[in-house]
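hey so i finally got around to running the thing on that chain from the lab meeting. sorry it took forever, my laptop kept dying and i had to restart like 3 times. anyway pasting the input first so we r on the same page abt which one it is
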Amino acid sequence: MVAAHNEGAAETGAPAGKLAENIAHFARTLRRAGLALGPAATLDAIAAVEAAGIGGRDDFYWLLHAVLVKRHEDSAVFDAAFEVFWRPRDLTGRLIAMLSPIAPPRPGEPGPKRAGESRVADALAAPRREREAERRTEIEIDARLTVSGRDLLRTKDFAQMSAAELQDVRRAMAALVLPNDHVATRRFCADPRGERIDPRGTLRLSLRSGGDLMLPAFRTRRIVQPPLVVLADISGSMSQYSRIFLHFLHALCEKRRHVHTFLFGTRLTNVTHQMRHRDPDAAVAAAAAAVEDWSGGTRIAAAIQRFNRDWSRRVLTGGAVCLLITDGLEREGTEDLVRAMERLHKSSRRLIWLNPLLRFDGFSARAQGVRAMLPHVDELRPVHSLEAIGDLCAALSGRAGNSADPRRYLEGPAARAA
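ok and heres what got predicted. didnt touch it at all, straight out
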C-alpha cells in the first residue's frame, strides 16, 4: 500500500500516516475520470477504512469499491485507477505505458487497454499539467475582438483537432440537446382528456358497477419517438468522423430505445448491441473491435444492398429515420448504387445524408457516386464539426431549413448562391 501505518493505528484500525490523504487523492482522481463523487463520498471512504481496517489488498479494493462506485459502468474505471494508484512500484513507467500508442503485444505482456484506462491516465496526469500551466509566464491579451475557445471548438473540423480537443468534443456531445422528434402513431392509448371515446375502455369501466353505470372512457393517439437507423462509412477517409459520431450515437442510445447502428467499409456490420454499453469509451472500442475492415476500402452500393436485403424490414418500421454517413466516393459502377439508394429512400420516412465533404465551400456534385445518391435523399448535411451535429439535432426535431435541400447541389453553383 501507499500509506504507512503506525502501531496505534494497527490496534484501532484507524487510517494513519498518509492513508487518509491518499484516499482523498484517489477520490479526486476518480472524479476527474468521470465518476460522480463528492466530498461526502470521500469522507465515507475514510470512515469505512477506519471502521473495517485493512486486511489484504482484495479487502481494501472491495471496501473502496462498495463506497465509491455508484454505477455498474464505473467499475472498469475504478479497477484501472486502483491498479495504477495503489501500486507505487514503477508508477512513472505505468503512466508512460498507458499514454503511449498501442504497439503489438509481446509474449507474456498484457493485451490492449481496458475500458477506462485512458481516462484514468488523463486524470492522474491532470495535476502535473496544472502545475506546469501555473509555472508559465502569464501574458495579458486583449480578447475583445477575438473568438472564444468554445466557439472555435464548435466550428473546428474533427480531422484538425488534437487529442485534448477531441476529448472536449466528446464531453460536449453528451451535453447536447438531443432530438425531440415525437410522432403520433395509428395506435391509441387510454387518456382521460382524449378527444375520442374508447368503446372497449367504456365497457371495461362499466363492469365495475355490474353494467348499471356506464361512463365514457376516452383515448388518444400514442406519441412515440420513431426508430433511428444509422449507416456509417468507416473507410480510410471517413474513420475519423465516424468514430466521433459514434460518441454522439452513444448519447442517443442512452436517451431513446430504438437506435440501430450499422458500420460498413467493404462489408456491412451490425454494432447495435455493442453501442448499448453504458460506458462510451467501451462502447466505441467494442464497435471498432467488431468490424474487420475499419479504415480500409469502401463499397457503398454493396453495403446498402445487403442492408436492404437483410435488415430493412426489421429496423425500418414505425416511420424510421435513416442517417447515412459517407462521402459518396463510390469507385465501382453507379447503377447498383442508384437502385440501392432508391429502395432505401422508399423504405425510410426520412433519409438524411451526412457528408463531411460539405466542409469545403466549393463543394459540388461532380463525382459519379455523389450525383447518383443525391436524387434519393431528403436532406444533405455536413458532419465535420460540433456545430454541424447540433444542426442535425435541430433538424431531427423538425426545425430544418431549406439549406439542406440536396437539389441545390444538382442544379449548380447559381442555385446554391440563391
